[in-house]
Structures are given as C-alpha cells and as structure tokens.
C-alpha cells in the first residue's frame, strides 16, 4: 500500500497542469485558439516523438504482451458494446449511441496516461502506456468510426466505409509514428545521435503540453446534456472499466506486475477527447461527450488515487 503522500506526489502534478491550463483559459490569458494550436503541436509533434523515443529504446519482447492487450481491451469493449446496445435500443440512434459508448470506454491514454505512468513507474517504463495509447487511438477509435459511418453513410458499401476509416487512421500521426519507428527498428539501423536528441527534446514536451491542453479544452463552454446519462457514463468509465481490467489482469491472465498494474491504471483514466472529436465531426452527442470528459477528469483525481493506493 502506498502512503497518501506518495500518491499525492504522483497524481497532483498531473492535475496541477490541467488546472493551470483551465485557469489560464478562464482568465483569458490564453485565447480560444490556444487549445487548437497546442493540441496540434501535441498530436503532430510531441506525442509521436515520445512514442518513437520509447520504441527505439525498447525491445520487441518488452512490448509484446498479449495478456495486457486482452485485459485492457476487454475492459474497453465490454463497456463499449454494453452501452452501445442499451442506448441504441433506447434512442434508436446509432450515431448518438456510439458517442455515448465511446465516452464510457475511451481512456485518455495519451494526454494523461503517459505522464501519469511516467510519474508512477518511471520514464523508462512507458511500454504499457504506449501500447495502450496506440490501441486507443487506432483500434478503439476505429471501431467507433465504423459504427458511426455505418449509420451516417447510408447507401455506401461496407468496403467504402472501411476504406474511408483506413485512410483516416493511416493519416493519424499517433499511429504512423510508432509504425514507422517499428519498421526502422526492425532493420537494425540506428538513428543519428542528433536526430535522437531532437526526438527526445520533442518527446519531453509531450506530457506538460498535453496536460495543459486538456485544461484548455475543459475550460471551454460545456453544452447542455442529460445529467443522468452523464453520471451513468462516468460510473462506467471510472469504476466498472478498471474493475473489469483488474479482474482479467490479476485473476485470469498471467503478466508481469508492471503490465498488470498498468492495465488497471490505464483503464481507470478519465475519458479522452476522442468522443468529443467524433461528436463535433458528426454533429451528435457533443453535450454528453464534453460533460463526461469534464466529470471524469475532475472525479478521476479521487478514483485514480484509490487505485494507486490499492495497487
């Protein structure tokens, strides 16, 4: 069991930077454009650089942990498909139900998970967080897009829908970066020292910038939405999902302690911005998505502290 001081030293720095971004936006020190521009920097430069840095300094045996994949993804998809089925039957709107299901299961692995795991386990033990981030922005995001596209692109073939999804994912720098790094490492070649230093400098900016960007996003006006639905999604995200991951990580699959603990911590993260991006893109469920992100981020201080204490 960790002491409360140790837990505070892990959790508070993460949320202090989120609060800093929130306050700076609320006081209009940073403009409405700051969130967009900082997000672009994080997505297109900082996070890809951090992923490349982790990849080139890890071996395939360290990153290949199928049990972690199963434990983490089972937590995601059990919640996702349960909410999807229930809300689809209730609203008869597949797009809205998909946004709700994504809000209840889409962990903020990139913006909060990576810095939190760095503080918890050490900056040299980010393998699980990186794998989870890749799964979240590729597999999990892709599944949500497939369901929404299936609903919104009536008349289009399944092949066209899948092709559109595939092109979108290939253009995502958070997917392209680790794929390129993996292909490069497979050749056995070494990156020049100057390039590695540039990547490391950019990667070092990922965590603080991502956390401040999260605060800027949360400071934006939240759309009106159903409080009951938001509370339901918050409970599923912060309590049910990590419990499912904990059961599989510690009672079903056999994996190294770092990966088992990481599966639970990463599953217990607040909802990421992915659902809101989908809601904005398709014009459905933005209020629920933004409120769920806000509430899970605020309440996540408490629930993450509990999980860190238990583990």
TrEMBL record:
<feature type="transmembrane region" description="Helical">
    <location>
        <begin position="68"/>
        <end position="89"/>
    </location>
</feature>
<feature type="transmembrane region" description="Helical">
    <location>
        <begin position="37"/>
        <end position="56"/>
    </location>
</feature>
<feature type="transmembrane region" description="Helical">
    <location>
        <begin position="231"/>
        <end position="253"/>
    </location>
</feature>
<keyword id="KW-1133">Transmembrane helix</keyword>
<feature type="transmembrane region" description="Helical">
    <location>
        <begin position="6"/>
        <end position="25"/>
    </location>
</feature>
<dbReference type="Pfam" id="PF03547">
    <property type="entry name" value="Mem_trans"/>
</dbReference>
<keyword id="KW-0812">Transmembrane</keyword>
<feature type="transmembrane region" description="Helical">
    <location>
        <begin position="293"/>
        <end position="310"/>
    </location>
</feature>
<protein>
    <submittedName>
        <fullName>Transporter, auxin efflux carrier (AEC) family protein</fullName>
    </submittedName>
</protein>
<keyword id="KW-0813">Transport</keyword>
<feature type="transmembrane region" description="Helical">
    <location>
        <begin position="169"/>
        <end position="189"/>
    </location>
</feature>
<dbReference type="GO" id="GO:0055085">
    <property type="term" value="P:transmembrane transport"/>
</dbReference>
<dbReference type="InterPro" id="IPR004776">
    <property type="entry name" value="Mem_transp_PIN-like"/>
</dbReference>
<dbReference type="GO" id="GO:0016020">
    <property type="term" value="C:membrane"/>
</dbReference>
<feature type="transmembrane region" description="Helical">
    <location>
        <begin position="101"/>
        <end position="123"/>
    </location>
</feature>
<feature type="transmembrane region" description="Helical">
    <location>
        <begin position="129"/>
        <end position="148"/>
    </location>
</feature>
<keyword id="KW-1003">Cell membrane</keyword>
<keyword id="KW-0472">Membrane</keyword>
<feature type="transmembrane region" description="Helical">
    <location>
        <begin position="201"/>
        <end position="219"/>
    </location>
</feature>
């Amino acid at each position: 069991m960790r002491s409360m001081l140790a837990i505070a030293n892990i959790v508070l720095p993460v949320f202090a930077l989120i609060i800093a971004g929130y306050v700076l936006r609320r006081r209009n020190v940073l403009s409405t454009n700051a969130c967009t521009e900082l997000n672009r920097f994080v997505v297109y430069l900082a996070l890809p650089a951090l992923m490349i840095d982790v990849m080139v300094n890890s071996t395939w045996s360290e990153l290949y942990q199928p049990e972690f994949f199963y434990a983490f993804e089972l937590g995601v998809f059990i919640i996702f498909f349960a909410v999807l089925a229930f809300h689809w039957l209730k609203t008869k709107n597949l797009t809205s139900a998909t946004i709700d299901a994504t809000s209840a299961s889409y962990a903020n692995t990139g913006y909060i998970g990576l810095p939190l795991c760095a503080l918890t386990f050490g900056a040299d033990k980010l393998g699980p967080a990186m794998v989870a981030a890749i799964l979240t922005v590729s597999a999990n995001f892709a599944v949500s897009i497939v369901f929404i596209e299936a609903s919104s692109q009536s008349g289009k073939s399944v092949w066209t829908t899948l092709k559109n999804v595939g092109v979108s994912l290939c253009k995502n720098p958070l997917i392209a970066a680790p794929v390129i790094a993996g292909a490069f490492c497979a050749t056995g070649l070494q990156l020049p020292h100057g390039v590695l230093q540039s990547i490391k400098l950019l990667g070092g900016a990922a965590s603080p910038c991502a956390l401040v960007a999260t605060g800027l996003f949360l400071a934006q006006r939240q759309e009106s939405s159903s409080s009951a639905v938001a509370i339901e999604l918050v409970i599923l995200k912060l309590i049910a999902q990590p419990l499912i991951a904990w059961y599989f990580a510690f009672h079903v699959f056999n994996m190294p302690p770092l990966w088992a603990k990481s599966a639970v911590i990463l599953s217990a993260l607040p909802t990421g911005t992915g659902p809101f991006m989908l809601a904005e893109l398709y014009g459905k469920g933005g209020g629920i998505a933004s409120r769920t992100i806000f509430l899970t981020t605020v309440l996540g201080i408490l629930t993450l502290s509990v999980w860190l204490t238990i583990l």
